[in-house]
Amino acid sequence: MLRLPMRYTISRSFPRLSTVSSSLSLRRIPPCTSNSTPLPLPRSISTCLAPRSCVSHSIPFSHKFPRSSSSFRGRPFSSSAKRGYQYGGNQYRRFNDPRREPLFIRLVKDAKPHHFVIIGLGISGFYIYNTDTVEMTGRRRFNCVSAQRELEMGRQSYLEVLNENRGSILPEHHPLTMQVNRVLQRLIPQAPIEGADWRVHVIKDDSMLNAFVLPGGKVFVYTGILPICKDEDGLAAVLGHEIAHVVAHHPAERMSNSFITMGAAFLVSLLFDISGHLPSLLMNLAYSLPNSRTQEAEADEIGLMMMSKACFNHEAAVELWARMQEAEKGAPPQFLSTHPSSYNRMEAIRGWSIKAEAAYEDSGCHAIGGFMPGFRQAAYHDRW
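Given the sequence above, the corresponding structure tokens read:
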């Protein structure tokens, strides 16, 4: 099988011997004997073509023309994985093409240590620059959403809530709406909110134990929470808590924290090549929920001070959360909730009672305390 390729190679290497090569292809080379005369060929050709029995110092044929298949026989099958799918020094890139990797992964692989230092300093500077202090409690927090943006979010949410509850909102002249508005008017002077346009909406839904205030002063109260409030003092505790969220700019803080949560979950999912659900769940349990519970506790404290300065009985807040605990049996554990447990809230409010009593006295509420029962009976004769 190698006779024809060999002759073709010899003929191309020595074109001036083409006549001899042609004659070799027509007749068989006679065996070398003592009486035979060798063909007048060059030494290199005669050495290659002559049998080993005739040439004592000839070089083996396989040393001059190695078989192409012999180079693969000594290589084990597993060596292809060790060499990285290489053939002839060129890498096989069908499944190992760096261009197929995401841009972020390639940037991380090519980054130098000082690149990470610069990025870390930039993120730290951005975080510190957007850190402020809650005025009424002194808590430091991250907030990168401006007050104007927060108001715009409040206006959009206000239109959405009105559209979702169309037909269920009680009119302004309804007794429940008027009572909620009267309690609110006593709390507004204690709520320093710029650009607020206060409006009260009572939603007819006895199954919903909820109330909330949007940025910009839009108040929503569900009828289901009114029996839990029991009276104006209890309603003042609920409204004071919800207004405190707006005073402390908690909606903007929650949005700022969501940026951190989403960014961290996205980064972890890229670096470790896993689904984003697990990092999101872990970040929610380790960061978002604890921050949310911190905001709720802070709103309890601010709301308690507000209702005390507005001459409402601060002890009604403790009674409110005792009734709420009875109403929300079967609630999830605190570490899985956005709110502290009702029991923990009661204990925290009891701890702030001395400060709330001082705010009540500083506002001169004891001076008019003797007139308040008769005044309330005349002005707020409707009960829930």
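The beta strands are 86-87, 90-91, 131-133, 140-142, 199-203, 211-214, 218-222. Try to locate this feature in the token string yourself.
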